[in-house]
Each structure stands twice: as structure tokens, then as C-alpha cells.
Amino acid sequence: MHNLKKLVWALLIVPVIGFAQVSEYQLENGLKLLVKPDNRAPVVVSQVWYKVGSSYEHNGITGISHILEHMMFKGTENLGPNEFSQIIAENGGSQNAFTGRDYTAYFQTLEKERLEISFRLEAERMRKLIIDDAELLKEREVVAEERRMRTDDNPRSLLREAMNAMAFMNSPYHHPVIGWMNDINHYDPEDLREWYQMWYAPNNATVVVVGDVDPDEVYQLAQKYFGPLAPEQLATVKPQVEVPQRGLRTLQLKAPAELPYLMMGWKVPVVTTAVEEWEPYALDVLAGILDGGASSRFSRELVRGQQVAAGVSAYNSAFSRLDDIFTIAATPAQGKTIEDVKQAVFAQLDKVKTEPVTEAELQRVKTQVIASSVYQLDSVFYQAMQLGMLETVGLDWRLVDSYPDKISAITAEQVQQVAEKYFIEDGLTIAELIPVATDNASPRPTSGDPHAR
């Protein structure tokens, strides 16, 4: 009854706030502007998204998009090192940045009357960044330490990195976002200057503004600050389609850890690449059926029922720029092995292939998706992030509003079809963490600016 009430409430409220008008503008220099009013509080979120991330990089400079994100706070022609952050703080705002495989984004949250400050600062560093040799040397050390703390000293992160590198042979998703350590240690200033010049331009950027604003006034501000910036001759992005996998790939990684860990990844299409438009949504539903709370199959069957796993998760990334992987990860329960968990997961997947999921399971997942879509609207930041991410990976931002409908349209037969089609050995990569004795050393403290990924 509680879930039914939540679903009814969600269906009623989504048309009210989910489909709020988004105004789209295009400046003459190619910059795209998306503005979504949300007048519930006198605040505004401003985000600048660039179509560049680790999937645009090549061997030898992996991670360069991430370190450039760090350097964007280190000074421009008219701003000193870290002055950007100081100005935002002095105006009562917060700011940060993040780098992904398909994008790099910068954002500020401010009182609504201070949006102009954000635009002025972002326009300044869009074309007038200074790459200082000494600052780069310091930031290389920061990023190297970040990599050690978040990946090299984290066995599960290390396993995920190794699995991606094995699963993707020629797709740029082979590269870790933070970069390989050898590449980090050998960036030179000219590498970053070339990368900045190549990708940081108005015709490769989308500005997203959500908050208590008037769209036309925001457009006039964008014209004032971003309009005079010159566009750039952007590099041609070559298609890098992953070669077909023709057999099971396995790896074992030995690292200091207390428990073994299993990761399994199957090649799947995403919304940008799918021939059958519904397939990525059916895979999302399948992820929810397997791992969508206490009543999901993994929790019910493998954790509480068979007690073969201490924890099992399933995740599908439907909104990437390139084909991705559907990932299942698990920790064996005490007294159980990686092989025990692996066979239990295979048995659950075989069941999905041979028996349609129940109507109750479908409705549970659909209820969760609709409710989640509504709750996310409480955050102006997340509203902006959805718009920017979709636009930057090459999709229509209007998919923000259509996602619940796409999920609601998925049938049990479609879930069964994607399981049969994609959960096959020829598309599978299995990675196992083999614990080795630790030296009980205390982890080293990290360092770096708050915008560090």
C-alpha cells in the first residue's frame, strides 16, 4: 500500500515539475545554453560542460583531461592561482568540478542575483587559462597522490580499472579517467596547452543554468560574457567502436585486501548506440530486478536465502557516449568462495533467460524509477546535471523527462530478450581479487584542492 501511494503521488507530481520548461539558446560562436527555471528557492546553479574526457585521450597522455580540470583553478590572464575559488567563496557560493569518460564539467551554486559572477569567471577561463610550469609540477604530484589513494591503494578500484582495461581492447573506455601513473608523471606544460586549446572553446561547451532565474535575462548575460569568445577549430573525433569480443576473458589481481571480490562485465549497447531503442532501458530494468533493494533477487536469493554472498550489486550505464558494460560485483559470504558466488550469479541469470520476470517485480522497479525521478527534482544541481550530461554525450536533453515513460513501457518479454542476447560467455569479462597479506601500514594522507576528482 505504501508503494502504491508513492507511485500515485509520483504520477501526479511528475507532470507538474518534471516537465518544467527548458529554454534552449545557441550563441553565434557555437555555445549552447540551457535554462530551466525553478523558483522554489532564491538560488541558482550554473554548470559549464565540455565535450572532452578520458575517452577522447590516447596512450601517453591518459588522464590529461583530469589534470587540466585541476589546472583550471590555477590562474588565467586576469586571475591569480585559486582566485576563482576565493571570489566564489567571498560571494557566499560553492563550486567544484569533475571529469568523466565523456565530459568535464565545472559548477557553482550561488544566490540568484550573483549568477553574473559565475559567467564572468567561467568565460575568463574558457579561453584565457595560463598553464604555469611550476603549478603543473605541483599539480602532477597532487594527482599522482590522488591516484595512489583512490586506485593503487584501493583493491576494488584497482580491480575495476583492470577489468575495464581487459574488457575494452580498442574502445577508449580502456583508459582510467585519472590516467595511468606513468602518463601522469610525464605530462609537460605544452601537452596541457595543446589539449586546452583544442577542446576548451564555446563551440565545444554547453552552459546549463537551473534556479530562480528568467531565461531571457540569463541569455543576455551569456551573450555579454560568452558571446565575444572566439570559436575553435575542434579536433575530429574518430569513431572508436570496440571490436567484437570472441570469447570469455578472465583475470586475477593480487592485492592487499581482507576479502576476495568478484566483478563480471558483459558488453551491452547504450542509448546512443543501440539499434533497438528499448534495449538499454530493458537492461536498466533488469539491473533493478537483480539489485533494487531488499526485495531484489540478489538480496533475496543470494544474500539472505542461500547466504552465498555478503553483498551483490548490479549496475547498467545506459547513458554513455560509447558501448559500455553491465556490471555485477560480489563479495563471498564467510566460508564461501568466488566460484560459489559466480555459479550462484550464473544460476540467477539463467533463470531470467528461461522464465519471464513477474509482473510484481516489473512494477516494483518502475515504481522505484518514477519515485526516484521525482525525488531528484528536489535538487537544482541534479536537474542541471541531467541536462548537461545528456547534451554532452550526444543525446537530446529532453530524454530527462521521457526516461520514466521508457522504463514504464518495458515488458517482461523484453527483459528476457536482453538477458538472452547479452548475457553470453563471448561478451563476458570476469575479474577476481585475490587477497594477499597486508603490511598493516597506515594509509597516506591525501592532498589537493576541493575540486579534485
TrEMBL record:
Its EC number is 3.4.24.55. Signal peptide: none annotated. Pfam families: Peptidase_M16, Peptidase_M16_C. Transmembrane segments: none annotated. One of its GO terms (molecular function) is metal ion binding. Residues 188-368 form the Peptidase M16 C-terminal domain. PANTHER family: NARDILYSIN (PTHR43690), PROTEIN YHJJ (PTHR43690:SF17). This is Protease 3. It comes from Methylophaga muralis. The lineage of its organism: Bacteria, Pseudomonadati, Pseudomonadota, Gammaproteobacteria, Thiotrichales. The gene is ptrA.
